[in-house]
């Protein structure tokens, strides 16, 4: 074909053809060749050919004639200009770019990962420092405005975990490349990649390495990091504790007296009329009610929960002693109108010095069973005049100091109607006296509880068997620990008479209620353990608390009011896992860096660019068809073994 025929068409077409030639002579045929930037050679579907051969060979399917050979003289004349050394055509021309100092610091070495670990360490240190500061202190409302302690811990724990995972995942990625320095399954590459991404892949990696490789530590750290934040949350707890919230107060008596002049009438009740109404009410309530409690002393507890150290108060004490051995059993049958044996007709029971105490008495048709009786020492009042032949002397408490009331009390335990005639009664002598009581008190949920720790009274023995006067009127003074406690004149007689008014002369079946019980606290006779002491202690407490309720002669014992406060308690045992993860990650990353530098291995880490540039060779990839499914690829990866090897100056994964 002629030159004109090759250049037929428009002039623009001619210019285009000329622009698509090599050396202005070789035409360009799209798709017939490409330029390798490494070898700088022209390759075609027919293999590698020289430029001279392409000049002489028409393209496939072309009707063009080969171009005429270039004049050798022209080539020779331009040899000095266009000649290229043979080595330049076979050696790859490497791409070169300039990098900054910071690029090299962050990418070529491990400073970024170490900085990330340092951030994690500082976050953990910030948490530990704040928790140590607040440990044992009151729970703060906010650490900083709007941020609670829990929120503070949560935020810094989340930052620490995120910063900690970065160097660990990068170290796992680095060990992935070092793992293939020996021939390994291609599937291991996928397993290492999964481990650098999360806990599930790390678990798979542990099964692959059998926990015998350094990378196993990194996988374990990734798994344990799941509990990093929850463990930090468990470190802090907010229990409550007692805290003093001001003083508490309770009244104590230092003195007791009466401002009322008393006219002593032997056979009347004028003394009772002069007793303060509050005391009468307290005594009657103590005797009649069966709830076992009395009105407490005045107290102030602002929080509802208070306590006091031991304190002293003037009060009334009681004591009893069994003298049942003095009783005499008698069972007579006579009809004398003089009523001997303490005034009992046809008695069958127990007597004390010819005075009737307990048992059956009366006529055949009107007999009664006496289950309880009282006898006042030093008195022959109407209470006992019917039964006694004179005043009574004390048997046990003749030497007692500061007495208020001394009396005998006899009863048949479990007394009921139609008792056996030989039922054995109990006889006790009891005494109320002035004393100083030492209390231990607490106030809980609005209820004051007082316990008597000890009692004190001056001891001034009087010899012999003392016959007490009808009403004691002398003042009393008790000294304890440089404090004086006093009772005014006539106060003892007033109080003694008020207490005595509570005691019945006797009780029989006519005294019981519908349940067969004696009234009020006297029902102790029918109920186990048949003990009169709780009843008498109740009377003594009622009198003592009434004394402490007076405006005069009282003072205040100061205690402490308690409230609840939430405080910060740090359970440092929960710091074990976060602390271990933090330290072990430093060991893991440091060891990985040391091994990489010792083996002069590039810091490829988990870079995807490294996978692209140093992945499988063309020879290894040929076996994987384009149409291969993912499951087939995974199955083949389990069978293929590869290793890192240098080929043509490149480090690639090659088949073994």
From TrEMBL:
<keyword id="KW-1133">Transmembrane helix</keyword>
<feature type="region of interest" description="Disordered">
    <location>
        <begin position="1"/>
        <end position="33"/>
    </location>
</feature>
<feature type="compositionally biased region" description="Polar residues">
    <location>
        <begin position="1"/>
        <end position="29"/>
    </location>
</feature>
<feature type="region of interest" description="Disordered">
    <location>
        <begin position="58"/>
        <end position="83"/>
    </location>
</feature>
<feature type="transmembrane region" description="Helical">
    <location>
        <begin position="572"/>
        <end position="594"/>
    </location>
</feature>
<keyword id="KW-0472">Membrane</keyword>
<protein>
    <submittedName>
        <fullName>Uncharacterized protein</fullName>
    </submittedName>
</protein>
<keyword id="KW-0812">Transmembrane</keyword>
<dbReference type="Pfam" id="PF11374">
    <property type="entry name" value="DUF3176"/>
</dbReference>
<feature type="transmembrane region" description="Helical">
    <location>
        <begin position="149"/>
        <end position="168"/>
    </location>
</feature>
<dbReference type="InterPro" id="IPR021514">
    <property type="entry name" value="DUF3176"/>
</dbReference>
<feature type="transmembrane region" description="Helical">
    <location>
        <begin position="114"/>
        <end position="134"/>
    </location>
</feature>
<feature type="transmembrane region" description="Helical">
    <location>
        <begin position="214"/>
        <end position="232"/>
    </location>
</feature>
């Amino acid at each position: 074909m002629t030159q004109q025929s090759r250049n037929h068409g428009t002039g623009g077409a001619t210019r285009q053809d000329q622009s698509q030639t090599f050396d202005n002579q070789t035409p360009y045929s799209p798709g017939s060749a490409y330029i390798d930037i490494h070898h700088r050679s022209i390759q075609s579907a027919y293999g590698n050919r020289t430029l001279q051969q392409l000049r002489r060979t028409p393209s496939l399917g072309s009707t063009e004639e080969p171009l005429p050979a270039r004049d050798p003289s022209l080539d020779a004349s331009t040899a000095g200009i266009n000649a290229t050394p043979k080595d330049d055509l076979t050696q790859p021309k490497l791409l070169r770019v300039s990098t900054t100092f910071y690029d090299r610091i962050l990418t070529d070495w491990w400073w970024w990962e170490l900085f990330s670990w340092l951030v994690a360490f500082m976050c953990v240190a910030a948490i530990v420092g704040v928790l140590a500061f607040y440990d044992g202190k009151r729970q703060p409302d906010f650490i900083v405005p709007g941020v609670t302690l829990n929120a503070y811990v949560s935020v810094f724990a989340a930052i620490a975990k995120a910063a900690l995972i970065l160097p660990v995942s990068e170290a796992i990625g680095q060990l992935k490349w070092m793992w293939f320095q020996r021939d390994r399954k291609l599937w291991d590459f996928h397993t290492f990649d999964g481990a650098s991404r999360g806990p599930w892949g790390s678990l798979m990696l542990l099964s692959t390495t059998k926990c015998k490789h350094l990378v196993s530590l990194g996988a374990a750290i990734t798994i344990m990091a799941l509990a990093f934040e929850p463990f930090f949350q468990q470190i802090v707890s907010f229990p409550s504790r007692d805290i003093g919230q001001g003083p508490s107060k309770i009244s104590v008596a230092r003195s007791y007296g009466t401002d009322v002049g008393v006219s002593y009438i032997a056979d009347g009740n004028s003394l009772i009329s002069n007793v303060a109404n509050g005391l009468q009410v307290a005594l009657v309530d103590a005797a009649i009610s069966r709830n076992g409690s009395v009105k407490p002393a005045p107290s102030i507890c602002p929080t509802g929960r208070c306590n006091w150290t031991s304190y002293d108060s003037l009060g009334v004490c009681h004591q009893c002693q069994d003298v049942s051995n003095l009783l005499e059993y008698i069972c007579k049958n006579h009809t004398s109108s003089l009523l001997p044996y303490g005034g009992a007709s046809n008695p069958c029971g127990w007597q004390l010095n010819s005075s009737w105490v307990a048992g059956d008495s009366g006529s055949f048709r009107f007999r009664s069973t006496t289950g309880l009786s009282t006898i006042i020492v030093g008195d022959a009042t109407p209470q006992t005049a019917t039964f006694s032949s004179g005043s009574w002397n004390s048997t046990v408490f003749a030497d007692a100091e500061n007495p208020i009331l001394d009396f005998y009390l006899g009863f048949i335990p479990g007394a009921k109607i139609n008792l056996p005639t030989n039922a054995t009664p109990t006889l006790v002598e009891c005494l109320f006296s002035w004393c100083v009581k030492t209390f231990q008190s607490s106030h809980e949920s609005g209820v004051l509880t007082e316990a008597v720790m000890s009692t004190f009274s001056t001891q001034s023995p009087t010899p012999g068997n003392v016959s007490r006067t009808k009403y004691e009127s002398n003042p009393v003074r008790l000294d304890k620990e440089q404090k004086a406690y006093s009772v005014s004149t006539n106060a003892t007689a007033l109080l003694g008479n008020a207490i005595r008014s509570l005691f019945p002369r006797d009780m029989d079946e006519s005294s019981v209620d519908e349940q067969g019980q004696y009234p009020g606290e006297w029902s102790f006779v029918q109920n186990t353990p048949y003990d009169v002491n709780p009843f008498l202690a109740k009377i003594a407490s009622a009198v003592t608390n009434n004394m402490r309720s007076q405006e005069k002669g009282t003072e205040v014992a100061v205690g402490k009011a308690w409230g609840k406060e939430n405080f910060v308690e740090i359970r440092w045992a929960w710091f074990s896992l976060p602390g271990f993860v933090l330290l072990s990650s430093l060991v893991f990353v440091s060891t990985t860096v040391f091994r990489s530098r010792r083996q002069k291995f590039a810091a490829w880490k988990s870079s995807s660019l490294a996978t692209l540039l140093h992945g499988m060779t063309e020879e290894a990839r040929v076996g994987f068809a384009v149409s291969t499914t993912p499951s087939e690829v995974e199955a083949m990866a389990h069978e293929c073994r590869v290793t890192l090897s240098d080929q043509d100056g490149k480090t690639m994964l090659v088949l073994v």
